């Protein structure tokens, strides 16, 4: 599995729009497995987004697609600044 973590700062009043747009996208992306959005305790405008894909190939294909660029542009409208993206191979997963 492969994925990305993003640090996001949301524009005031745009939290629900961000959540709605992420929910809309989830079923549209080939190779997408799951995602989580965390609102940080120390700053209510700061979020961490985690996204999991079946493989690095699926992630890269999505990242390079025009459809993903259009989805990203809609997400970016909710953000106060460009997100910081940290991509990598998932080497462990812990569930109870």
Share of helical residues: 25-40%
How do the SSEs run, as a string of H and E?
Answer: EHEEHHE
Coarse morphology: globular
Q: How many structural domains?
A: 1
Structural class: alpha+beta
Report the mean per-residue pLDDT as an integer. Answer: 95
Strand order, largest beta sheet: 2-3-1-4
Rg on CA atoms, Å:
13 Å
Q: How far apart are the termini?
A: 19 Å
Q: Count the E strands.
A: 4
Q: Which ranges are low-confidence, i.e. pLDDT below 50, for 5 or more consecutive residues?
A: none
CATH T-level topology: Alpha-Beta Plaits
The helix count comes to 3
Beta content comes to 25-35%
Second rung of CATH, namely the architecture: 2-Layer Sandwich
Summarize it.
The protein has 96 residues and is an alpha+beta fold. 32% of the residues lie in helices and 31% in strands.
What do these coordinates show?
The chain has three helices and four strands, in the order E-H-E-E-H-H-E. Strand 2 and strand 3 (46-53) form a beta hairpin. It is 32% helix and 31% strand. The protein has helices spanning 15-26, 56-63, 66-76; strands at residues 2-9, 32-39, 46-53, 84-89. The chain is globular and about 35 Å long. The protein has one domain: Alpha-Beta Plaits. With 96 residues, the chain is α+β, with helices and mostly antiparallel strands. It has a four-stranded antiparallel sheet.
